Amino acid sequence: MLELNYAQKIIDHSIALGADFSDIFVEKNIFNNISFTDNKVKNIQSGTDFGIGIRVIFGTKALYGHTNLTDLEELLRITTLLCQMDKKDSTSDQNINFSSPITQNIHTISNGLDADVPLEQKIKFLENLNTLTRKHKSISQVQLNSLQRHQQVEIFNSEGLHVNDHRHYARLATTAIAQDGAEQATGFYGPGAMAGWDFIAKLNSEEIAEKVAKQADTVLHADFSPAGKLPVVIDNAFGGVIFHEACGHSLETTSVQKKASVFHDKMGQKIANECVSATDDGTMENQWGSINFDDEGTPTQRTELIKDGILNSFLVDRVGELRTGYKRTGSGRKQSYKFAPASRMRNTFIEPGKIEKDEMIASIKHGIYAKNMGGGSVNPGTGEFNFSVAEGYLIENGKITKAIKGATLIGSGSDVLQKISMVGNNFAQAAGMCGSVSGAIPTNVGQPALKVDEILVGGRA
Question: What is the pLDDT of residue 252?
Fold first, then answer.
């Protein structure tokens, strides 16, 4: 996408101005989004975005600029501006010669936007899902969104690296709204993958319709949650959002390097119950958060964050490596060419154990079963969080009884990790978008069902 001799001149220019390292990120992003609500297509958005980002590093200081132009003079001008404050005389007469390492593509893609299916076929799928969801009597509104993206990236750097990649993303977001008089409740399901349209086409529409309608109807007629310090079983898949938000961000060198993480000085120490092991894995085939290499050109990997309760690794990008000394983990990611890369999660999850979920439920006399988690907020520096329970149930005398609503889980990541006493065997993942200093990126969260012995539950009952 960028002429090779342009990349050579830009990087040679930055090194001549005294930069210790320089890289170029070129991106072409093609997207197609369909919004369906009120029984009809509401909006179709398609387009292409293109741009180039240039980064220079002096010591541990990184500077970044970007443009939509491919003109060499403009790219050299940006490079000069970035180096202006830190430039120094350089004895380097480097003439960069790029090599292109062979990168294995771990993803099989069918019907990406570069070989797309007809628009009518996509709309027909959404129409059918809408009809199936509306068959449930309490459902008053259905909102559907199909999202597809084809991101082409090219990366050059002053170490001679030159790599290319094609990343295909597909996601379906289904929201059902149940209504009884003035009362409303929602159900949501949003699977995604590094894949083409075939991923969406192969989803079971009847199961999705049943799932979101049942969730909305259950919450609509639920009683209000009790409050207080209670044992809680958090179910699999999107239940992993608590670990992602309250702990995962604190394991990124983005926060570790500033000592803005409660775990910054805990490497090799026990930070969780010994039944807890956690992983961030970018190598999982066709998973929503997977990549072949990160946005710095570093091959992705499987990173064991916590092993048997012991902190084993951080998530490290290039600048994080320079500032902390920890080795890069292929975790430098960003939303687009408009952002500098930072250490970010990929597919982040608590590893499965061997305990049946029913055994966890049976061990609780009075507590909460959080079947589906919702949104929340977290303080990255302390790991303190509050997350809503999208679908919850009361546990009484070892059995799940009535549905509850309005429950909020309140605590800190470091405290919750210590209070996990049982880890289930029903591991699953769920897709989401993660926001941080380098924008919003696709990430998976995941876990099996977990028993937390005690957590503060906010409720109205």
Answer: 97
Please give the pLDDT value at position 16. Answer: 95
pLDDT digits (tens, 9 = 90+) for 72-126: 999 999 999 999 988 776 656 678 889 988 777 889 999 999 998 999 999 999 9
The pTM of this model reads: 0.95
pLDDT in tens, 384-396: 999 999 999 999 9
Range 321-340 average pLDDT: 98
Phi-psi region of 308 (alpha: psi -120 to 50; beta: other; left: phi over 0): left
Instruction: Identify residue 10 by its one-letter amino acid code.
Output: I
**CB contact at 8 A, 442 and 192:** yes
DSSP string, 310-358: EE---B--HHHHHHH-PPP-S-EE-SSTTS--EE--SEEEEPP-SB-HH
Give the separation between CA 208 and CA 187, rounded to whole angstroms. Answer: 10
Residue 375 pLDDT: 86
* Integer Cα distance of 288 and 269 in angstroms: 31
Q: Where are the domains of the chain?
A: 228-458
Q: Which residues pair with 35 in a beta bridge?
A: 43, 145
Beta strand 223-224 pairing with 399-405? parallel
Q: What type of residue sits at position 75?
A: L
Residue among 303, 282, 281, 302 at smallest CA distance from 292 = 282
Distances from the Cα of 230 to the Cαs of 108, 212, 237, 306, 313, in angstroms?
45, 27, 22, 26, 31
Contacts of 461 (CB under 8 A, 6+ apart): 223, 224, 225, 226, 227, 404, 406
Q: How many residues does the chain have?
A: 461
3-state secondary structure of 136: coil
Q: Which of 245, 171, 280, 259 is nearest to 435 (CA)?
A: 245
| Cβ contact 120:34 at 8 Å | no
